[in-house]
Amino acid sequence: MSSKKPTYQELKAKLAEAEEIIAALRREEVDAVVGNHHVVLLRLKDAEEALRESEKRYRTILKSIEESYYEVDLAGNLTFFNDSTCSILGYGRDELIGMNNRTFMDRENAKKVFQAFSKAYGTGKPAKGFDWEITRKDGTKIYVETSVSLRKDSKGHPIGFRGIGKDITERKRAEEQLTASLKEKELLLHEIHHRVKNNMQVISSLLKLQAESIEDEALREAFRNSQHRIRAMSLVHEKLYQSKDLVHVPFRDYLTSLIRYIYQSYTPKAGTIELVTEIEELPLAITHAIPCGLITNELLSNALKHAFPGERTGTITLSLRSPEPHTYELTVSDDGIGLPEAIDLKTTTSLGLHLVTILVEDQLKGEIMVERTGGTTFHIVFGVPE
Amino acid sequence: MNQPRIVIVEDERIIAEDLKRSLEMRGYRIAAIVSSGEMALEKVSEQQPDAVLMDIALSGEMDGIQAAEKIQELFGIPVVYLTAYMDEERLTRAQRTGPCFSCIKPFDEGELAATMDKVLKGR
Question: What is the pLDDT of residues A17-39, one digit of tens each?
């Protein structure tokens, strides 16, 4: 099949068509470029808008928060801060800008601030929880709890610090009041223990003075026993007001003083009765210390009075230990003549031993056991609260 | 030999009475019993005793250590402190007043007499 050769007219028409296509294509390209620019511009506009929004948001936050937001240079001069900073410090914005932190605090607090800044500078890590005492423009003192972080420029070089400060004056004052009140109560408690001890001493002196006029030896002895019982109790108050812990009696110290007092009161002939003590350092609440002291007083007095008649010599051993947690064992033993078999702790008419039994069983909720071999040994086991 | 004369400074009158009788039984004479540091200075000046038995916690402006300091300074008379306890601060203050003798309250008669004997022997 032979093809027909195009005419000049036809070729001209085809060329015009091609030119039109090229022109159209060019138009489309330009439109596309223009379109791209438009997209970029739109995006930039959006970003600008977002930035403005974000700036507006953080300015609103800084404006509305009660806390102070501050920025200082490396020397501690304020370079930027929110309105709360002005109201907390009591200075106007114009006064505050460029002001050094040392202007509104004493030397001691300025030192604390310096240390906090140095730490943030050295570690690069934010530090928080500092309580600084600040002097406001009107001279009033306030406490501010502050955080500190290091500020860096775009190249990462330190340029200053920023942080948040909160006025905690009210909380601090409440804490101070609470501490003062606690201290006052402690002093009061000390004073009460002192007064109780003094009053007991007066009672003891009264009994002693009264006993002087009594000729009957048994009656005098009864007065003396009462004096010792009062002394055993007053010593607990004495040890409590001397100690920092107003709840627990330092029991080794207490027992040592009590034993010394009882031993001296009976003044055994020199070298006749040896006293051995093995007392662990155990704390005891007053509720347990007083009965324990009274029991010791009775058992030790009994041993001193009855275990070694005439010229007999021997040893009294007193020990306190904790064989297991929250359990104490008090032991008073002597190698004297031994407790007569006829004496039964449950039925005894001796006031001293009766007191021991009721104090152990009813007050300490403990148990008492008596051994009568080679003298007499009283084992008292009782529980102590955690 | 003359009985040594003592001034007792103690603001609990019953305890002072107890002290008086205990010392009298041991051969001492009580020149006066007073309850404050100020009164102690007055009586010591007037009576010129051989020794003063001084409670530390007293009624009045002066405590026992302050009164003892004045007594030592003005009259050079030895003082025996009577106290429930002698803490570090009290001991340091008491030692500054001169030779420091003390008896722990509630007092033991034997210990009290022995301390008094020791103090008076030094005079």
Answer: 878 877 877 777 767 666 777 77
CA distance B54 to B69: 11
- Please give the pLDDT value at position A1: 44
The amino acid at residue A16 is A
Nearest residue, CB atoms, B15 vs list A202, A238, A265: A202
Please identify, among A246, A281, A296, the residue that sits at the C-terminal boundary of a domain: A246
Q: Is A54 part of any domain?
A: no
Q: Is residue A50 part of a domain?
A: no
Q: Is residue A328 part of a domain?
A: yes
Domain count, chain A: 4
CB contact under 8 A, A201 and B110: no
Q: Which of A204, A205, A242 sits opposite B85 (nearest CB)?
A: A242
pTM for this entry: 0.65
Shared domain check, A253 and A230: no
Structural domain for A35, as ranges: 8-42
CA distance A151 to A157: 8
Min Cα distance B13 → chain A (Å) is 9
Give the pLDDT confidence of A247-269 residue by residue, as tens digits. Answer: 888 889 999 989 988 888 887 67
Q: Does B85 reach chain A within 8 Å, measured CB to CB? A: yes
Q: Smallest Cβ distance to A201: which of B87, B106, B111?
A: B106
The complex scores an ipTM of 0.72
pLDDT tens digit sequence for A287-321: 899 899 999 999 999 999 999 998 889 999 999 99
- Residues paired with A319 in a beta bridge: A278, A331
Give the dihedral of Cα atoms A369, A371, A372, A377; nearest 10 deg. Answer: -90
Q: Which residues of B touch A201 (CB under 8 A)?
A: 12, 15, 105-106
Residues of chain B found within 8 Å of residue A194, distances taken between Cβ atoms: 84
Task: Please check whether residue B11 is in contact with residue B35, taking contact to mean a CB–CB distance below 8 angstroms.
Answer: yes
